[in-house]
Amino acid sequence: xxxxxxxxxxxxxxxxxxxxxxxxxxxxxxxxxxxxxxxxxxxxxxxxxxxxxxxxxxxxxxxxxxxxxxxxxxxxxxxxxxxxxxxxxxxxxxxxxxxxxxxxxxxxxxxxxxxxxxxxxxxxxxxxxxxxxxxxxxxxxxxxxxxxxxxxxxxxxxxxxxxxxxxxxxxxxxxxxxxxxxxxxxxxxxxxxxxxxxxxxxxxxxxxxxxxxxxxxxxxxxxxxxxxxxxxxxxxxxxxxxxxxxxxxxxxxxxxxxxxxxxxxxxxxxxxxxxxxxxxxxxxxxxxxxxxxxxxxxxxxxxxxxxxxxxxxxxxxxxxxxxxxxxxxxxxxxxxxxxxxxxxxxxxxxxxxxx
Length: 355
Hints:
This protein has 355 residues and is α+β, with helices and mostly antiparallel strands. The protein contains 13 helices and ten strands. The longest helix is centred in the middle third of the chain and has 36 residues, at 205-240. The chain is globular, with a radius of gyration of 20 Å.
């Protein structure tokens, strides 16, 4: 079977990459990461390309593409360490709202880049003793940690029972505090609710699980792009850096390091592509593939990020080179929406190998 990207998908990835290379080089990423500016302009620029509406049907103002297309875009975003809320507002939120129904107006606002919807799924993934969300009489109370997008206009908040509520960021009883995480290219927050008005969007666990699987595949694609960028930078540096009157790329040890990174990363690309394809076309395999893909890319991405930094030597730790933006992004992706260990345990349960 010949499985690859279509010409339209290749063109989509090229368009996103060109936009980010022109408008958001590393210097612009630094400004967002340092807090000198926000990610609003970058997100609006992508909105002009239709990226926020990639998974939203045309009837609601979106582009109406599939999860494989979203994974292709995510790879480009990861390659450029793009400081945008793609995973939350363009992937997880539309997946929930489209399947739950009844939110056509909000979907149209998301597709146009007018409204950003953050995601507070931590309690649905693994409930915490010091957190938790309770609901009563059209309100919710409690706390949710590591919420995606600290600048969102509205939030989808999940409970331990995997019910999902829609809450406005400026609603009475909502307190939002930005969290400082290792990855400064994307914002996260802690949300506290005190009888905050909330709309029940879905009480079907299948909707939550579908959105979680989509988020995991897209995070894996983001890690793939970030790791590929780190590999490319390592190869370029090795061809330029001289030691003992020779470029270090001529040293066998450096060759092996780069070859190991490339060999580990190359099979990941079709793995991510097929996981995205399965979300649309192979429902009986989508959960297991999402778990395995997220777990595997987390491990390979960690190896590439560490080895690429080693190839750069002392320069790899400087802000001048900026490798740490990709290094930290890969590290954050590793834990977000489930660690490799958690994902593998879920995959074992799906296959009947664990209770």
